[in-house]
């Protein structure tokens, strides 16, 4: 039997095949890790992966192996999200949390409901994590409450681990809290101060109509002050020096003069000043 390097030929061939397969597997893992690290870096920096469609191989070593952005979105971003979820699970394990939630709209005018988890522990600084960003069919109490419960389940947290629920003062969010409180009676509601102050202002307007009318008239006096209007005219002249009045109209009166100033092609502001 022939021997190569002290080994039988058949065993030597088998060893070479194993080494080749291991090397191929290692290169594949390194390639996959490079793609994951690149996607993670772009997503963490809030840079669209669409930018990776531009040729970078000339400047960045190894960037020629990156797939197109469509493949990155469909295959790699979910994997990166799963890695972050697992890391957040470990950080939240055994800790009480506070839930922050709010609804917004994306560029497609879809309702996007965001849920944040903040830890409660003796550390001087608490960790705030974006736990979920879900597109809802409609912004209502039922959908929001279900999304909060689903998010807690995904991160292996119970509703009893939640000390407080923070949101705005919209009616459907208040109803959402009442739904969650029915499942956890010790849950606290914390509403943001701007919404509280807004409610206070509305309460004063309704409960104190005479005071509201007085404040309204005082504000109107300052709103029509000559100095205020002159400052606004100076602002327009500095910001839009290229815009010249295209039309000027004088009113036959001894105390009022009107002028129409074109700020741009789509907006006309009529300024009225007292002589």
Automatic annotation (TrEMBL):
<dbReference type="InterPro" id="IPR012337">
    <property type="entry name" value="RNaseH-like_sf"/>
</dbReference>
<protein>
    <submittedName>
        <fullName>CGG triplet repeat-binding protein 1</fullName>
    </submittedName>
</protein>
<feature type="compositionally biased region" description="Basic and acidic residues">
    <location>
        <begin position="8"/>
        <end position="23"/>
    </location>
</feature>
<feature type="region of interest" description="Disordered">
    <location>
        <begin position="1"/>
        <end position="25"/>
    </location>
</feature>
């Amino acid at each position: 039997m022939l021997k190569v390097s002290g080994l039988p030929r058949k065993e030597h061939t088998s060893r070479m095949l194993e080494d080749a397969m291991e090397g191929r597997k290692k290169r594949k893992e390194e390639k996959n890790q490079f793609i994951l690290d690149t996607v993670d870096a772009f997503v963490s920096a809030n840079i669209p992966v669409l930018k990776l469609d531009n040729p970078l191989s000339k400047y960045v070593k190894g960037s020629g192996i990156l797939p197109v952005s469509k493949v990155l979105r469909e295959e790699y971003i979910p994997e990166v999200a799963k890695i972050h979820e697992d890391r957040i699970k470990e950080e939240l394990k055994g800790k009480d949390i506070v839930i922050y939630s709010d609804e917004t709209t994306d560029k497609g005018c879809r309702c996007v409901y965001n849920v944040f988890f903040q830890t409660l522990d003796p550390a001087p600084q608490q960790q705030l994590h974006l736990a979920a960003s879900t597109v809802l069919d409609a912004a209502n109490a039922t959908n929001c409450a279900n999304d909060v419960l689903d998010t807690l389940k995904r991160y292996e947290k119970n509703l009893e681990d939640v000390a407080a629920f923070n949101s705005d003062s919209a009616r459907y969010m208040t109803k959402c809290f009442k739904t969650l409180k029915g499942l956890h009676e010790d849950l606290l509601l914390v509403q943001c101060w701007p919404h509280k102050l807004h409610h206070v202002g509305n309460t004063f307007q309704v409960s104190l109509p005479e005071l509201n009318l007085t404040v309204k008239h005082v504000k109107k006096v300052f709103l029509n002050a000559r100095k205020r209007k002159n400052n606004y005219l100076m602002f327009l002249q500095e910001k839009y020096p290229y815009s010249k009045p295209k039309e000027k109209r004088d009113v036959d009166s001894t105390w009022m003069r009107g002028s129409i100033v074109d700020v741009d092609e789509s907006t006309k502001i009529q300024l009225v000043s007292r002589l």
